């Protein structure tokens, strides 16, 4: 009789353990187990299968998220679960898979947001998963700040509804530009400042190099021949174009538009005027260059002060004419495939894992 009683007790204990284990197993959700409330009712945005939230909080959240969707074009889903299946490496991984499985947000702008709340002891965590478009405004940093400074104080006390409400309110402020976490952006970012310094610095260096080269020509023993041979940025042009390409492009554009004289302004040997001698005509070919023999070009300079002229002959090398060959151009056509639209009222948005998670 005693043996039978002990056996019955053991059976009862094991049965109870199996029941508890079964309940715990049922409380661990996989992505496919989470009910998508949008498929049931397009006015619902909160999936709370274990009824962890008060009905009044759920109604408030549904109403606020509907307004967020209509006014700011941000589709938001809230999911409250006790725990997730152990097959997922993290709650963030679960959120990313759930987001993409449901397709939260528009398929063009990817303006979705998933807020996942886990409530089981030892596994409590709040997760934000943002779509590709949403993360441009609701950055990972903002997600973390909202969780830590606004939501976690309530969530730690078990006030899940209040925590979600303040989180949604702060998300709305972020998109309206009225959040305390948003600081006024400077006129230029650090990268933009560096780019501007590089651009302006390049222009200054190019102008300075040109000025020094022209000064050397003016002070040389044969300034007229050297001036005739002068070429803008010759020799260091490739270096300048490589180091300061945008600056080099702007410099050449400026010269083309302003039609600045490329040759240095020389000093007049007759009247002594400084920088008044300029090229009067385009150089004329005195002797045409042929293969194996240089040609001669005649340059005519004139002083703008006394009208005295200078003529110099400068040799130039033969340049073989270039032949152009026509080449066919090939075009590759790619086939584009479009995935079928998802059911329910979600628009097929995608997430690349943006957002943040905080355990509490």
Give a written overview of the molecule:
The relative contact order is 0.13. The protein has ten helices and eleven strands. It is about 40% helix and about 15% strand. The chain has helices at about 1-25, 35-40, 55-70, 90-100, 140-155, 160-175, 190-220, 225-230, 235-245, 245-260; strands at about 30, 45, 75-80, 85, 110-120, 125-130, 275-280, 285, 295-305, 310-315, 355-360. The protein has about 350 residues and is of the alpha/beta class. The chain has a five-stranded mixed β-sheet, with helices on both faces. Strands 7, 8, 9 and 10 form a four-stranded antiparallel β-sheet that branches. A hairpin with a 5-residue loop joins strand 9 and strand 10.
Write the layout of secondary structure elements.
Layout (H helix, E strand, L loop, with lengths): L1 H25 L1 E2 L7 H4 L5 E2 L7 H18 L2 E7 L1 E2 L6 H12 L9 E7 L6 E6 L9 H17 L3 H17 L13 H29 L4 H7 L7 H7 L1 H14 L18 E3 L4 E4 L7 E9 L5 E8 L37 E6 L1
Parallel strand pairs: 1-4, 2-3, 3-5
Antiparallel strand pairs: 5-6, 6-11, 7-9, 8-9, 9-10
Helix pairs in contact: 3-6, 5-6, 7-10, 9-10
Structure characteristics:
single chain, 360 residues, alpha/beta, 5-stranded mixed sheet, 4-stranded antiparallel sheet, 10 helices, 11 strands
Summarize, please.
The chain is α/β, with parallel strands linked by helices. The chain has helices at 2-26, 37-40, 55-72, 91-102, 140-156, 160-176, 190-218, 223-229, 237-243, 245-258, and strands at 28-29, 46-47, 75-81, 83-84, 112-118, 125-130, 277-279, 284-287, 295-303, 309-316, 354-359.
């Amino acid at each position: 009789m005693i043996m039978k009683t002990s056996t019955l007790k053991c059976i009862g204990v094991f049965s109870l353990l199996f029941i508890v284990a079964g309940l715990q197993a049922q409380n661990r959700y996989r992505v496919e187990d989470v009910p998508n409330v949008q498929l049931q009712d397009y006015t619902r945005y909160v999936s709370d299968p274990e009824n962890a939230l008060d009905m009044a909080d759920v109604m408030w959240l549904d109403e606020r998220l509907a307004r967020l969707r209509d006014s700011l074009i941000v589709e938001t889903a809230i999911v409250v679960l006790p725990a997730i299946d152990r097959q997922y490496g993290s709650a963030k991984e679960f959120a990313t898979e759930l987001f993409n499985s449901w397709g939260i947000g528009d398929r063009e702008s990817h303006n979705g947001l998933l807020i996942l709340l886990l409530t089981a002891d030892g596994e409590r965590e709040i997760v934000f998963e943002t779509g590709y478009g949403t993360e441009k405004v609701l950055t990972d940093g903002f997600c973390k700040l909202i969780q830590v400074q606004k939501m976690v104080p309530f969530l730690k006390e078990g006030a899940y509804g209040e925590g979600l409400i303040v989180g949604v309110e702060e998300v709305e402020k972020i998109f309206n530009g009225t959040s305390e976490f948003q600081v006024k952006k400077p006129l230029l970012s650090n990268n933009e400042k560096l780019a501007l310094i590089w651009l302006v610095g390049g222009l200054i260096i190019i102008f300075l190099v040109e000025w020094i080269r022209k000064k050397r020509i003016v002070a040389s023993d044969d300034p007229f021949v050297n001036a005739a041979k002068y070429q803008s940025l010759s020799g260091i042009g490739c270096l300048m174009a490589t180091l300061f390409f945008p600056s080099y492009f702007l410099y050449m554009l400026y010269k083309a538009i302003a039609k600045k004289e490329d040759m240095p302004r020389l000093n007049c040997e007759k009247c002594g005027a400084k920088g008044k001698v300029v090229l009067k005509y385009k150089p004329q070919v005195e002797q045409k260059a042929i293969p194996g023999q240089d040609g001669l070009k005649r340059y005519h300079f004139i002083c703008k002060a006394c009208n005295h002229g200078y003529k110099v002959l400068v040799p130039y090398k033969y340049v073989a004419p270039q032949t152009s060959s026509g080449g066919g151009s090939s075009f590759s056509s790619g086939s584009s495939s479009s995935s079928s639209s998802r059911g329910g009222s979600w628009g097929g948005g995608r997430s690349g894992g943006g957002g943040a998670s905080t355990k509490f």
